[in-house]
Amino acid sequence: MHIAIAGNIGSGKTTLTRLLSKHYNWEARYEDVDENPYLNDFYDDMQRWSFNLQIYFLNSRFNQVLEIRKSGNTVIQDRTIYEDASIFAPNLHAMGLMTTRDFNNYSSLFQLMSSLVEPPDLLIYLRATVPTLVNQIQKRGREYENSIRLDYLKRLNERYEAWIISYNLGNLLIVDVDKRNFIDKPEDLSFVIDKIDAEIHGLF
Q1: Which residue has the higher pLDDT, 137 or 60?
Q2: Chain-centre distance of CA 21, in angstroms?
Q3: Angle at CA of residue 198, ends 3 and 165, nearest 5°
Q4: Domain CATH for 18
Q5: Rounded mean pLDDT of the chain?
Q6: Active site residue 78
Q7: 63 lies in which domain range?
Q8: Residues 134-151: tens digit of each pLDDT
Q9: Domain tally for the chain?
Q10: What is the dihedral of CA 177, 179, 182, 187, to 10 degrees?
Q11: Residue 143 per-residue DSSP state
Q12: Catalytic one among 32, 41, 78, 84?
């Protein structure tokens, strides 16, 4: 089974992936952040590095999904292949930070790759307002994230909401991070786990 967690920067995807992996004894697949050779450059000069970054993420996630299905294990994945194509790349294009030529090239590649992989059995979307995102980004203290602009997070949030409203690839569970602090409150984590249990039982 393939469970994936989606959400904006700072919504708590990596933390929830780790907590659920531990609780259910699922194999965890994390977003390739530390090893990503473009991330620091991207935040310094988005226009120059946007296409390179998006192609790197697309390749990384495509390989992840292939490995997940091949493994035969129950795997929980931190961020999906769909978010870059539905949210991040279109946002960069709309902000003038990715050329139309590069965006069309990227989109064509995504269409091909997405036709070759299956969507997750369950998608967990972490919904959070910008103040919550900013608070959690500041808490984790990644240096390259210090320059993220509020309007950038706001635009991403709007695209996430539009994507989730139309998401029809499989089962969907929405967690309101403003109301459920699963990081610091065990009872909130238990609430999320109960919801996941109900969704998983519905898959069989």
Answers
A1: 60
A2: 16
A3: 60
A4: 3.40.50.300
A5: 91
A6: yes
A7: 2-203
A8: 888 887 767 666 667 788
A9: 1
A10: -160
A11: G
A12: 78
